[in-house]
# Entry
Amino acid sequence: MTIYKAPLDDQRYTLFNVLGAEAVLTKLEGGEGHTRDLLDAVLEEAGRLSEAVLAPYNASGDEEGCHFDKATHTVTTPKGFKEAFKAFAEGGWTGLIQAERFGGQGLPNVMGTATSEIFQGGNLAWSLYPLLSEGACHAMEMHGTEEQQDTYLKPIVEGRWTGTMCLTEPQAGSDLGLLKTRAEPGENGSYKITGTKIFISAGEHDLAQNIVHLVLARLPDAPAGSRGISMFIVPKFKVNADGSLGERNSVAAGAIEHKMGLRGSATCVMNFDAAEGFLIGAPHKGLAAMFTMMNAARLGVGVQGLALSERALQNSTNYARERLQGRALSGPKFPDKPADNLMVQPDVRRMLLTQRSLVEASRALLLYTSLQTDVEARGADEATRKQASDLVAFLIPIAKGVVTELAQECTKEALQVYGGHGYIAENGVEQFVRDARIITLYEGTTGIQAADLLGRKILQLQGTGFKLFLQEILAFCQQHAQDAALASLIGPLAKHAKEWADLTLALAQRVQANPEELGAAAMDYLYYSGYITLAYMSARGAAALANSNQPEAFKQAKRDNATFYFARILPRSLTHKAAIEAGVDTIPAIA
# Structure
């Protein structure tokens, strides 16, 4: 049985001391009431719910999994999941960041990110059910008609219904231009949707009265490729004019996947057999509409990586403190006991500090990016909103791609701390390793994030967001250049920032000469960029201690994290730089 304690102190420090979230949020349009007192209270309540209601069913939900009835095409979620969702909805969490005009509470996105970490840390498999709804709501708010919003969005915000994203097909994974699902005109402005979608999280379950699927399909006159995709609302149950549920629509789960991890989350094959659907947004513009959901989802997946890393860290740290084994190399540290604990071993501390420094920096990156989405949506002027939008676009592939890959490392190191006991299911830590494995794959694999960062955000968009972010890092370095307490951080950070700019320019020139260089360098460029980005976040965490009234032990832990990151983690960027400079010729063709 694993433990989980919501990391409220670390979240608050990052939000309010490092990022100055209260000052940012209260200056935004409609943000006057988003004070620290309010946000603190929300975090506190989220922590209670996660610890008391969600976390107890994390291990049992994994062991039991979901049950699929082939006769009725229905899914039953693990014991406790339905009751947890009811408590979640009754607490208003389904509408936390949704607009008040749809029945939501209208809190900022950054609070959605912070509370999502808490809920996912408690029970990641369970948290996928409301997470998909959040993305569906965002897409309908941005692209739906007023009637569609009233009919489908409001019940999701209330927690009576849930939503999904239906993209992938057996022959069309990341290349959505290959999808075959058809949309034929029907009666009264409706369409008949026919096709099969796979890997649909929360596609069928017993938590809510209705499920609203957002489905990508092709109209009869659709052009070939990704330019011919439209998006449709397809509810599990049809909706009557008065908002009540009507007859069952002809959409059903054909199976659920038997997975390596996240077994409490139903991943479904969904069959649409002339199901009634309604066009959302403009014809043939469905891919753009779906990416409204996708960017938010990618940030959310990064949060999943953070949540798993945090829980793995908590448990491996606790185990290292309690496990008595061997003696310190310099002599016994606990002579009154039969052995010292694992903490006396430098290599164990290395594994724990690797986790801790990556968790701290990742949390700052994710909350920073989420805070920028609030500025993007409600900033004081167009220039401010545009700048935030450019920063978000640049950081999303790093926040998703790098943080989820580092979650593999963190959960692996946690298991390693346990030794052989980590491999045993009853200790629970092996579940973190299994659950973490999928997050590098869905919502775009790490390779796709790398191609997006280098191919689109750097080359196609001419590095607009990158330049803004680099300017921010250099300004931070200049601001703290004379701070002796930060000297070991600021000098290396400034050096790496300049190197990042030079390497990016050189790489862009190489890609222009040979497009194959893009694919050869993209993954290493993603990691390289990620390690420098996290170094900046780590340095900001250390710099904010000067204006913090936290206990000295808390401050020392933050200093240790930053020192360890710069000494032991940041040098990894040199390997990726060397790989980038090696070029495409070192990746020969394979017969």
Summary: The mean pLDDT is 95. The first helix runs from residue 8 to 18. The chain has 18 helices and eleven strands.
